[in-house]
Design brief:
two-stranded antiparallel sheet; alpha+beta; 2 helices; single chain
Length: about 70
């Protein structure tokens, strides 16, 4: 149950969770062709206005593949 005073926070949290799940699903099949490792994505920000992503990978090719997949 959500308090009326916290409905905005709960809604924003649900949206952020949905975004994170969508990113995970989009990158599920992405692996580095050379090292066979999966990229890691960090979703940062305390609000939707301050949201940003960081993609980490074993090499630049892995990061480029992940970035291309998310576009």
């Amino acid at each position: 149950r959500v308090s009326p005073n916290n409905i905005g926070n709960s809604l924003e949290r649900a949206i952020l969770d949905g975004i994170q799940k969508q990113i995970v699903n989009q990158l599920r099949a992405v692996t580095c062709p050379e090292h066979h490792q999966k990229p890691k994505v960090r979703v940062k920000g305390r609000s939707l206005e301050a949201l940003h992503f960081e993609i980490e990978g074993c090499c630049s090719s892995a990061v480029e593949n992940a970035t291309r997949r998310l576009k």
